[in-house]
Design a protein that fits this description.
This protein is an alpha+beta fold and 144 residues long. It is built from 5 helices and 4 strands. The chain is globular, with a radius of gyration of 20 Å.
Length: 144
């Protein structure tokens, strides 16, 4: 076997392993795992944006349902009473309601403490997920 043939065989074997590890498009568990990962990613990104830029940072990760009801200033005001986290730890207990909505427990860091909060999520364009609810936004979401 030539070096090129051996390299191609190794590349093909690696591609098959990656395909097997990722699962096929019809594999419901892989799809759920991917959706959980996307919800986890957006919760982490939203948390660090909130840490960096308060309500204005979080606003960029909110679903269109929230942003059509709440302005940046309203989100900032609604969250003023909510302690701002200092970090994100993980997401757990992700539950999907249909194909485009989910709730999850987001574990946030507050100094040396941890707190579990239930957040809502909505799938918007394509595979993109956005935050549809964070504790503290109730007054803004109600249009007050």
């Amino acid at each position: 076997m030539t070096r090129l043939s051996a390299a191609l065989a190794a590349l093909l074997a690696a591609a098959l392993l990656v395909t097997a590890a990722c699962g096929g498009d019809d594999d419901d568990d892989a799809t759920d795992d991917q959706r959980v990962a996307r919800v986890g990613s957006v919760s982490e990104l939203a948390t660090y944006a909130w840490i960096d830029a308060a309500g204005a940072g979080l606003y960029d990760y909110l679903s269109s349902d929230v942003t059509t009801t709440c302005t940046v200033d309203q989100v900032t005001e609604a969250l003023a009473e909510h302690e701002q986290p200092t970090g994100w730890q993980q997401v757990k207990d992700v539950e999907f309601q249909g194909d485009a909505e989910a709730t999850a427990t987001v574990i946030l860091i507050y100094g040396s403490d941890r707190s579990e909060e239930e957040w809502g999520f909505k799938q918007e364009s394509g595979d993109s997920w956005r935050v549809s609810h964070v504790p503290g936004l109730e007054s803004c979401e109600a249009g007050e």
